[in-house]
Known about the structure:
Number of domains of chain A: 1
Largest interface: A-B, 65 and 59 residues
Oligomer: heterodimer
CATH superfamily of chain B: Outer membrane protein transport protein (OMPP1/FadL/TodX)
Number of domains of chain B: 1
Strand order of the largest sheet of chain A: 1-6-9-14
Amino acid sequence: MKKLQHISLGVAVLALAACTKTQFDEFELNSGSADFSNYVSVGNSLTQGFQDNGVHNERGQQDNSFPAILSQQMQLVNPSAKFKQPTVSGNGSGYIHLEWINEEIELVDVPAAGSWGATGDASWDVNTKYNNLGVSGIRLTDCVPTNGDLLSPTINQFITSNNPMGGFLDWGSLFSPVSYLDHIKASSATFFTCWLGNNDVLGWATSGGDDGAITIPLIGSINLSEMTAVDVFSYKYDSVLTAFDRMGAKGVCATIPDVTSIPFFTTVTLDRVGDDVWIEEGPYSSTPGNVRLATKDDLLTLYASQDLGDGIGFTQANPIPHEDVLDRDEVVVSQTRTKELNGEIKAMAAKHGFPVADMYEYMKELESGITLDGVDYDAKYIEGGAFSLDGIHPNNRGYALVANKFIEVINQAYGSNIPPVIVANYSGIYFPN
Amino acid sequence: MKKITFILASFLPVLSFAGGFQLNLQGLKAVAMGGAFAGACSDASSVFFNPGGMSNLSGHNFTVGFNLVDPHVSLQTASTANIDQTSPKATPIHLYYVGQVTDKLNFGFLVNNQFGSSSSFEDDWQGRYIIQNISLKTFMFQPTVSYKIHDLVSVGGGFVYTKGSFSTEKAIPVASASTTEGKAHLEGSGDGVGYNIGIYSQFLTLGDETKQTKFAIGLDYRSKLAVDLGNGTAEFTDIPNSLRDKFPEKTTFTSKITLPSVFTVGISAKHIITDKWSLELVYDLNMTGWSSYDTLAFNFDNNETPDSKVTKDWENVMTHRLGADFTYKNKYSVRAGLYIDNTPMKDGFVSPELPGMTQTAYTAGLGYKVNEAISVDFSYIRQNADREASLDDANWSAKYKRIVNVYGLALNIKFGDKPAKEGQPSIE
């Protein structure tokens, strides 16, 4: 009796003790109704992987563009998916980084790589089919010929072919232009992300509301950083989505963040300067060139920090020049246009049945602070941890946040279950030693 | 092109740390019976469970024991299918003495580890900015007396002196060209005082010398223990030189850990057929005052280092403990029990190093009385639970699975006894 009890208890204990498996099974991943086998990303610098004022790869910066991160996660779901970026080597187009000089942290320019030229990186091959079609600086209006404007294809060709960031694509010639839309049509994408339109506002805003007028021989004057009209934008966005729709691709569109949610405009504040600052109002204000004291509604760009460092801006006679200020009127103009264009993005996406990653809202969320796995992020310059040193573009961690936002929207819309990435595994700001 | 002139305001990643774990492994007879003992008090562990019950014991009673805690914890996050804790096995000890001074007065002493935890993960794991590892140890010392104030009632009380120490590590999100992240290593130790008081009554005995049933009740209160960590040291490694003013190689800090109070009501019923067998049923209800453990703050002496304060906001909880002991010929014992443990950690406050879970755990054990002087106890606890919960401050959420096996072994020595009290009819 007692022996039996001993033995049966002993056996029960041993059997239990042997079972200590707590491990969870691997995820069962699926693509839902989407096909990630040929993912193509279209967009601008945010898609190309631009950060720290350049496209560079000193420590895998461009390798961690958001489409590259996204494609790696897609490959977990669909191992046969391939993704090719037009990568730059090392310093790429040149960039800025931090150095520790005389016990101070300073921003220092790093020159472009030797392999960098007027058509971008020497390794780029226009005959290669790249998946990441992001071209830094490109506006939506440059991508698609304007309806009824016979000169438009030529102007677009001039602008895009003179942008080294787009040197991995064949833009044809002035007489036989190839448009960005043509490249989209030839992409045979099964899945796409479309994050175009930022430069249709941002280019104007970051140059302090300057249109960036230049004169091209034989063609005339064109405005390189002019904001795009809403009806033009709408038509061109529709054209891009129609192209994807026709090839049967599924995908996601993304909205344009508000200019006031990026550190480029929010770092140099009157509070931080601690003094009155004189500014020159921009050309879009009611009285161009008018010099007045800055108010908290005027946004000084990061570049104004150098003006101030050089003693500019402290007297009426020596104001911060207009291209380094987005004055309060221009702020309103760009915010209004951003909202209008986002309205068009949402309307066109809905028309074609594509979901929208609302980056406008997400950047507002980031601005008020996001915590993930015990790390805090916000939209502050450097200390916020998510923006690169140029104050406009995310760093690797910021792009990982962006990729996760896309993943969330894709999973929701297409019933897939792509796992999000661990944001903290991507590098943030490199502080100098 | 214009340059950006660098403006660095303050760069302050918040340092937050967590920890805390009650070890209910303080007597192996109790452990085997679901942890219930405040109403039983039949061995030297009474000094811990209920000093009032020390008066049950005659002669000199020593117990020395230890447990081997073998935890297995796995996690799943949205990004990672499986993460295993790498927590080491722990071996908390206990040492008890209860001796009879006069017919009415007993003296007791204990040394044990009432709170402690040791959790670790791979250094590069997903939650490394929350915790990489933590180890918390406490030693309690408690001189105690009990006094029989009535034939049926005895009271006891002890002064508790505790020494606590902890060390913890976590990653800091700052990188340089040569480092991917920094690391904070904090360690500190300190002491605190408290008390343990109890009352015990074997209030009813039915039957005669050959066959009887005894009923007893016990109440015990162990006070909270505020352990002052007055001179902790923090070391920061792999910090970029440009951030060394914030994270120096070494700084000191002050902190405080408050270990919770425990109030226990216990009852027991023991049926004895003299010289044949006995069956004892025990039940304890613990109320643990975890709400005193509401914040864990670190104040660094280096002004530039951001101080840390985490709201724990734990809840007071009740634990039900139920067990049985069957003893044959006053020599062989078989024990079993269970406890229904409620976690003090609300959803939103569950940290990966110590994911609290409400669960029913099962216990078992054996006792063998070698002779009148020596007996040994073996005990076993099986915990198996899972939970999905978040740590909102860190925006961390995970699924947890935890299996813990605890093996205990103790040696009891008794001498200077008058004729055994066990089975001896009390004077009613």
